[in-house]
Design brief:
By secondary structure, the protein is α+β, with helices and mostly antiparallel strands. The protein has two domains: 152 residues, N-terminal domain of MutM-like DNA repair proteins (Alpha-Beta Barrel); 144 residues, Helicase, Ruva Protein, domain 3. The chain contains nine helices and 13 strands. The chain binds a DNA duplex through helix 1 and helix 8.
DNA sequence: GCCTTATGCTCAC
DNA sequence: TGAGCCTAAGGCT
């Protein structure tokens, strides 16, 4: 479900939890993820992220590539592994912290003491990554082993990633070389890696940019400013496991920190509701195969 | 309970 | 351009 900012966050957390440790990897033999035995019991050197892709580096040309797609997600926890559920899942864990999975499974079957599965139980993101004992992957689009060459090929087909320190220059150059509407370009991973449907809508509103404006008609200064906005936006977007893109001053309540649920976005999924900035009804239509949301007044400028 | 929708992407036509 | 992947949440009845 995530955009690049959350992918990078998983990479950091999983590196902190498992980096340079021997990890166990389990996947049901009936699942599509047939490569687990190849990696089980090996040292995880670290976890990299580019765009919406994760790479778990086990060395020797063994990089577990994970793409969450639309439905994929990770859960994490301390203590013993949770009981297996019906769905096909992949687990990475530190057996020094979880204990022997065989024994735990038996305890679970006997209905022994319950324990917390998710960090969100305490209402915050507060679980110290050092305390994570296991993570569980559900519903990814891809979970397979890449060689270094394959990973490099992946990086080559992606555009600049704001979270990997890439500069605005490439972004500006690519956008200005195309007649395609900016809202379509922002969904293209070869233009800006990691941007997804929430960020495109919110970034365009923050820039007061008309979504239909062709890339080659946008001036360099404006594009550079959008990139400059994107970097801290992606870094700070996750608050209490929610994507937050509104500036406190634009929220009806002016509330800082964790905003009300209905104040988390300017336009994303707010069709028919009044724009926080100008009061005009937010509009929606399909664009690049996904629902685009925008304020026709704030973002009407200069199609000319 | 059922239906729709979703922060994504690939492939076939 | 549309189907398919595959899972959960939320809004309805």
């Amino acid at each position: 479900m995530p955009e690049g900012n959350e992918i990078h966050r998983w990479a950091e957390r999983h590196t902190a939890a498992f980096g340079d440790k021997v990890v166990r990897i389990e996947a049901p033999s009936t699942s599509r993820f047939v490569d687990a035995p190849l990696l089980d019991g090996r040292v995880l050197k670290g976890v990299r992220a580019v765009g919406k892709h994760l790479g778990y580096d086990f060395g020797k040309d063994r990089i577990l590539h994970v793409h969450l797609g639309m439905y994929g997600d990770w859960t994490e926890g301390t203590g013993p592994l949770p009981p297996e559920k019906g769905a096909l899942r992949v687990r990475i864990f530190d057996s020094k912290k979880t204990g022997d999975p065989k024994r735990v499974k038996q305890e679970s079957a006997e209905g022994s003491r319950p324990h917390r599965w998710y960090s969100e139980d305490d209402g915050s993101d507060a679980l110290d990554p050092q305390k994570i004992a296991w993570v569980e992957l559900r519903g990814p689009t891809d979970c397979s082993v890449y060689s270094e060459a394959e990973w490099k090929k992946l990086e080559e087909r992606l555009g600049p990633d704001p979270l990997n320190g890439d500069g605005a220059e490439r972004f500006v150059e690519i956008v200005r070389s195309k007649k395609t509407p900016i809202a379509v370009l922002l969904m293209d991973q070869s233009v800006a890696a990691g941007v997804g449907n929430i960020l495109r809508a919110e970034l365009l509103h923050r820039a007061r940019m008309n979504p239909f404006k062709p890339g080659n008609e946008i001036d360099e200064k404006t594009l550079k400013a959008m990139w400059k906005d994107l970097v801290p936006l992606m870094k700070s977007a996750m608050v209490d496991r929610r994507m937050v893109t509104t500036r406190p001053k634009d929220r009806p309540t002016k509330k800082t920190g964790s905003p009300l649920k209905e104040e988390t976005h300017y336009v994303y999924r707010r069709q028919g509701k009044p724009c926080f900035v100008c009061g005009e009804d937010v509009k929606t239509m399909e664009m690049a195969g996904r629902n685009l949301f925008w304020c026709p007044k704030c973002q009407s400028a200069s199609l000319q």
